[in-house]
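Check my protein:
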Amino acid sequence: MRLVTFSLPGRRPRVGAVLGPWDRWQWVLDLHGLDDRIPVDMISFIDACGNLSGRTWVRATRAVAAAEKSLAGRRSPSVHRPSAVRLHAPIAPRLLRDFIAFRGHIARTRAALGGPFPPEWERLPAYYNGNHLNVLGPGEPVPVLEYPVYEAGEVGIAATAKLDYEAEIGFVLGPGGRDIPATEASEHLFGVTIFNDFSARDIQAVAMKVGLGPPPGKDWANALGPCIVTRDEFGPLGDQRVAVRINGTGRLSGTYRDLVYKNPFVGEGQRAVWTFEEMVSFVSRSQKVHAGEVWGSGTIPGGCELEKGDRAVYLRPKDVVEIEVEGIGVLSNPIASGPSMS
């Protein structure tokens, strides 16, 4: 099932299901409108059927099947054309964690910056907690980060000159739990979405030297969307094509498998990736994880400008960033003409 959070003019956002091919949506179904026993919002929906079973899941699948059959006749008022709805971020995460799971990405960024590969990456799936309150949806403009600069007793205001995109898979957790073995972790995945972890590389570089992590160059804007594809429909990551376009011009294109495992920075016998199952086992060993958390995979190798070093072409106001993952869709966001956020 492909799930969205959408709204109609003058109406509050609600959970919906999408009909049609992944790249040519035909209908958006209001699940609560089709069956008022189905929760209105995504978090409540995942709480009720995060393991893709139970009464709410059965009601949702039946509602979708019935709506598909009815399209040949009189259409329900809970069935809408995609052009008639506004898409929001598919989920307001309970918590946002972002991992750095790909050897190809971290090796290439360190090489571009003239540094060595960190051997500590081999020891654990490193992550930081992002800002789950600053989440953008499809089509929402990304504000250009402004920040105060303190020098020689004076305070000035600077805007980032190195605004970057990061193409990631967003893992949406279903059932929570603690001390989950890797062999059982896949059962705790509800579905996947696209995660664009926007980054201000100049302020990130300064903050990292302090030793407390990448914010504030990371946590002012995170985009998710356009939908969540449940794990039973999406299947394992492998041959799905991944693409990044800026103003329609390609910056990345390849299959997930090739970008991750056939990367020139991954040697024979070396670990290429920390898997979702390993992430769950690692994190849940010391704390409870919760339904409705969203975990970023980290940048798919090649999916950002930082990896290009001196050849990087960073984002400018009015640019449009598109990240496409086959089977999920396209997450598109324009860069705002100024730094203000409404």
In short: The domain at 96-334 is CATH 3.90.850.10 (Fumarylacetoacetate hydrolase; domain 2).
